[in-house]
Amino acid sequence: xxxxxxxxxxxxxxxxxGLLQQGRGAQGGSLEVEPRQPVVALALGGSMQLTCRLxxxxxxxxxxxxGLDTSLGAVQSGPNSSVLSVHNASLSATGTRVCVGxxxxxxxxxxxxxxxxxxxxxxxxxxxxxxxGRPQELACTAHNITNPEALSLSLLLGDQELEEVQxxxxxxxxxxxxxEDSLFRVTExxxxxxxxxxxxxxxxxQATMRLPGLEQSHSxxxxxxxxxxxxxxxxxxxxxATLEQDSTRSPWSPGPKPGNSSTRPCRPEIHWSPAPxxxxxxxxxxxxxxxxxxxxxxxxxxxxxxxxxxxxxAWLRVLWAxxxxxxxxxxxxxxxxxxxxxxxxxxxxxxxxxEALWVGSLVLGLLLLVFLAYRLWKRCQPAT
Length: 384
Description:
By secondary structure, the protein is mostly beta strands. It is 13% helix and 45% strand. It has helices at residues 3-20, 349-380, and strands at residues 30-34, 39-43, 48-55, 61-68, 74-77, 81-86, 95-103, 106-117, 123-126, 130-131, 136-145, 151-157, 160-161, 166-174, 184-192, 202-211, 214-225, 227-228, 268-275, 278-285, 292-297, 306-310, 313-319, 327-334, 339-344. Strand 22 and strand 23 (313-319) form a beta hairpin. The longest helix is centred in the C-terminal third of the chain and has 32 residues, at 349-380.
């Protein structure tokens, strides 16, 4: 190494040493910022404080906040501290804040990036309810968010993510502009295999936002309804099966027959069986004394159905009057307020109407043919 190079290094060394003393100076000064994270996430409309403190042994000391291409907010500064307050944060408040302190002849600097995000609890699902026994496509959308790359959507059964579904892809679109800020909606689609009975009361769509130092989640329940048609064989179904009954069983596989479980939760259940001219629905709860169940909803007017029962059992009769009713039947357990639901799907009434018209036309045609044959026979008889 030549003498000229050694002289150059000797000249540059004090310069680099001065750059490296960010946060601590020769006179014992130090600069600290709270929160300590380099990136701080703040919800849209929220408030927070950034505090910058300077420890300095010299009398000549000062500390202040500066902003880079962004508004500072409200700043209160003293000899050894400066507090930056952000109130009702807007998306435009996102940016880097710089705290600069001086202690004697030394200067210090700390930076923090403020990240304002939008993640309201605005989840929608389509369809709004699932049914058992058929494959279905499900879409879940998170509305009016920022940072779509930090958002994930998942389907949950209880607190476990469903793995037996087919992901159909994700869509990110801008929301219609209502102001200067750009907001997005993110939609995730899945193809679900058939859900079997006993089905869980609900699945959940969960949206999770993961940002530096922050993780937030919102969820939207998706009710699971049991669809009943008159072609189904008479079975007993538990429509309010809970995860405690069989937490390891997949909802996509046929479960054990009802009644085989050694433990039954104190929840209402709906059973059904054929009856002359229709069905009889039984709502019951395997609970202790003092509990009652009663029907709360039926297609049309609940008062139009014949109902009877007492205590923890309540019956309701559904008559097939041409086309049997379509809709939701619900019963309630008191005390507790737990609900059980059954969705009745009618057969195609138009086919029954067409069959009746065809049979009626056939009978009329046969009668007309008999009448014409009789008239022809009478005419052909020789006169006596």
